[in-house]
Amino acid sequence: MQYVTLNNGVEMPVLGFGVYQIPPEDTERAVSDALAAGYRLLDTAASYGNEEAVGRAIKNSGVPRDELFVTTKLWVQDAPAEEHTKRAFETSLTRLGLDHLDLYLMHQPYGDVYGQWRAMEALHRAGLARAIGVANFYPDRLIDLILNNEVTPAVNQIETHPFFQRAGYQDLMREHGVRIQSWGGFAEGRNDLFRQPLLSEIGAAHGRSVAQVVLRWLTQRGVVAIPKSVRPERMAENLDVFGFELTDHQMARIAGLDTGASLFFDHHDPEMVTWLAGRRVDA
Fold first, then answer.
1. Which of 71, 93, 96, 257 is the most buried (most CB within 10 A)?
2. How far, in Å, CA of 221 to CA of 217, rounded?
3. Domain that holds residue 140
4. Residue 283 belongs to some domain of the structure
5. Total structural domains in the chain?
6. Which candidate, 212, 237, 215, 216, places its Cα nearest to that of 226?
7. Domain of residue 209, CATH code
8. How many angstroms separate the CA atoms of 163 and 258, rounded?
9. Measured between alpha carbons, how far is 33 from 103 in angstroms, rounded to an integer?
10. pLDDT (tens digit, 0 to 9) for every residue of the chain, 283 residues total?
11. What is the DSSP letter of 76?
12. What is the pTM of this model?
């Protein structure tokens, strides 16, 4: 496994296992299979509804806690956000069966963002979260958060895949010491990604699958990736991306696939903001 170093010195695997959209009843088995395959970064969220299953898999895995890097996420909180954030964190920690997190992310840039961040800073200072960060923050919101708070987010987890590459934003984050992490690295198969001609051609040249090409492209850029699968053979395949390297020419050709637009939703869309900000997760 390869690692990246976050802005506070914490090391994070560059490739992990995500559990978004895995039903709770299937999550324990999937995470157990992922840990057996060699994954050590696990990514979940309060809003996914499967933290308890992730925790059971960790407990029964036999993998030492200090070998794991566990991430979960805070859903939108109303004021007083400091109080609600602390309670939400404690609930997630209990569901996971852990005494600390390696990374705690603010899941959406809505609600009392600054109250939430102050509470997360306090959790970080107390050693309960080794690193804190955000998700789905666009450049203006990220820079504003950095300029007006003590702790710079260690990570920003955003939609990043061959059709929405975020290269310029990655450069901006790098300038401020924020690590980019991809969600939706396979674009959930949209635009027929797994049969995309260029990616298929590059895969054939290396004797690799399109999924492996995409993950190699992400990690070679220094983007932390968290692919999801419920099939052990696919988990193993996704993890096996460090034995080959894409050429500069191949990386440049993949750059040509960028559309510059989300394939999912726009966080600036008032209807989407209303839905996300109005949704609540039981803490």
1. 71
2. 6
3. 3-278
4. no
5. 1
6. 215
7. 3.20.20.100
8. 4
9. 22
10. 999 999 999 999 999 999 999 999 999 999 999 999 999 999 999 999 999 999 999 999 999 999 999 999 999 987 788 899 999 999 999 999 999 999 999 999 999 999 999 999 999 999 999 999 999 999 999 999 999 999 999 999 999 999 999 999 999 999 999 999 999 999 999 999 999 999 999 999 999 999 999 999 999 999 999 999 999 999 999 999 999 999 999 999 999 999 999 999 999 999 999 999 888 887 6
11. P
12. 0.96
What 3-state class would DSSP assign to 265?
Answer: coil
**CA distance readout (Å), 259 to 67, 76, 117, 207, 221:** 38, 29, 32, 27, 18
3-5/11-13 β-pairing: antiparallel
CB atoms within 10 A of CB 19: 26
**CA-angle at 76, arms to 84 and 125, nearest 5°:** 55
- Quick one: which H or E segment has residue 215? helix 210-220
114 has catalytic annotation:
no
**Residues 59 and 96 sit within 8 Å (Cβ to Cβ):** no
User: SS3 of 181, please?
Assistant: strand
For residue 209, give both structure tokens.
């699958």
Cβ-proximal residues to 116 (8 Å cutoff; 6+ apart), any chain: 74, 77, 81, 82, 85, 106
Instruction: Map residue 274 onto helix, strand or coil.
Output: helix
